[in-house]
Amino acid sequence: MMMMEDLHELSRELVRDVLDLAEDVEAGPADPEHVASKAEEFIEVLGVISALSDQDIDYRVTANLEEVVHRFSGTREHQAQHTQGPGRLAFDIPSAVLEHQVLSGLPAGQIAAMFGVSKRTIRRRMKQNGLRKTDLYSAMSDEELDRIVSEIHRRHPNTGYKLMRGHLNARGVRVPISRLQESLRRVDAEGVYMRRLRLRVLRRRQYSVPGPNSLWHIDGHHKLIRIERMWRDVYEHALDLFYQIFTSLQDQGTLNPDNEVHLFALHRIFLPLIQQSLDSFRDAWNFHGLRTERNQSPQQLWRRYREQGPMEDPTEVPEEYGIDWNGPHSLHGGTVSVPEVQLARELSDEEVAILPAPGVSLTDALRLYVETVQVLSRIIAD
């Protein structure tokens, strides 16, 4: 990943480019298409800088650049209108397909690559069909956005703005980065500050593969680094809250891991919630932006790959890939056996029906866990 000095240099280059563009516009007639295109690039660079540094960008800067794009795009549209005459035939891009790609969040450059045209052609067609990037954004008030962000934050308290955006996108909620950052500051001001203090930018090896789900060679050391990093994310964003809850229950004497009744109640109430948390993290991960892919999400990369078609000559991976037939045999078959809870006796269907129902919200889980322990203790004692 980028070091901080690289980010500072990128910021300085952005300032120089903005000033150069302003001088060109002031010096005389400027190409509206070029100005609008450069302004859009500046907005994308600001998003990258904000994502890598975890620093908020003044919303007025982005708003001013978006105003430049709007004004010069309007001029560009007016100049692009013409009657049939000499020249090349227009490239046929179905409006329905273009709308689908734009609303899926793919950047203009990627859409252009899919059709084999320039970004300017895609932007012109978007303008002709009344498609704008702002059409992606959901119409909702700050109060509605804060409510959704607060709900996600209660289930995933360690989530920063980048993964929070993945949670929102997975729910079909899309808002500008600036609005999401402001919402997180209102909902979790302390968490935003603490995450800035913990920010560490590391350089990691990058890998290139033909397409999604492709395999590549990776040595053991780096494989362990990748696995440990993924487990850290899963724990921090999906499991840490439950660890804190269970530890607190043990400290209070409400949970005894050697008590089968306690374990049965714990599994009954919390296993569905843990699965919900893992599913939510999975969806957010699939919709969160990847720095090395120009902030495209895994879901967007997969969709682009499917629509562009498979590789010309993909190599089928045999089922025994990765098996060392001459190596030592595993004693455990690569699996972890979780022992089932052994109650004093098996519960009847009528007795199970008496127990509090699982699948509740996290807010009610602690109360229902205690109730389940009490009811189950009475059933076993009878």
From TrEMBL:
It comes from the Eukaryota. Residues 226-304 form the Integrase core domain. Pfam families: rva_4. This is Uncharacterized LOC115548716. It comes from Gadus morhua (Atlantic cod). The gene is LOC115548716.
